[in-house]
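Fold it.
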Amino acid sequence: MGKKSRSRFVSTRSLQNGMKIDQTIKDRTGRTLIAYGTVLDDFMIEALPRLGINGIYVNDGEDEPEETEIPEQTQKLIEKLKVSDRSRVKLTESVKARVVEGVQFLYGNTESTDFENATSSITNELMKAITDNDAIAIDIDMLKVSDEYTFKHSVDVATMAMIIAKQYGLSKKEIYDIGIAGLLHDIGKSKIPNEVLNKPDRLTDEEFHIMKQHSLFGYDILKEKKDLSKPILMGVLQHHEKINGKGYPLGVAEEKINLYAKIISVADIYDALVTERPYKKAFSKRDAVEMIMSMTAELDISIMKSFMDSVILYPVDSIVRLSNGEKAKVVENNANYTMRPKVVGILSGKVYDLANDMNCANIIIL
């Protein structure tokens, strides 16, 4: 049985002397400030917030063997208590292939007369995947439509935004339109120079200023398309706006931000967090959700709730580690408490209803 490294994300306020860093910290010029594998001391921990770093990855050493033997009696209990997850979006391999081919076409042919037809075709595929099994939840691991970030990200964001919109109670037409806006939210990146768009390191301030123009470029590209509604255009233009007015490109506050943009913003941030890039590791789904939850000054609260109701962090049958040291198997999820499912301890056979049992109030999933 193989072993795996126990890398986890820790906020700077929770770091402790002696933790080993599992990434490299660099400044804007690319100089290494804290090398990979360094054991943190108090001076380093105090310096991180001053660098604008809210959290880092640390390594806890090697985990237990990945495969876990489950006693027969416990397995019977698990089967008795197991409740299937809410229906999730499923994309077949053939649909994924068609969707990726379509998105590639869109980003490479913004002036084509077939642009709007291609957009509709992709969105219809995603809408069908949602309606075929009445999907109301999203598991980001189930998408994986492509290894190419821009195309994968566009499909992820569109699909998540549509599910969030469904949870929010929008009409089928609005869900469909949000799918179009999600697919096209980064279309303006087709106008960003490749040396900026594909830079493997963090962007300089000047390069970031260029990158921030992509939502304006996207709006300019799409405003000439006769079949795209104003809400779709505003969803593209405003998907980086924040309700506190500190977003871009317009810096408008909550009441002036289009609903589609508010929905796409949450999906966009989540997908960016859980996706590995050359200059950053992927956050775990749990850490990404916690970061979304901490952004109450920037994101719409009601949209955040619909997002939380849409995400399945711990699919039924997955193995998790509890803060009391026990490994457990997930048997039921609670839509209102995404991070606190019902689980069964593998060795003890004990049932932990993390959402409803007060005796489990001090137990969390690590």
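The radius of gyration is 22 Å.
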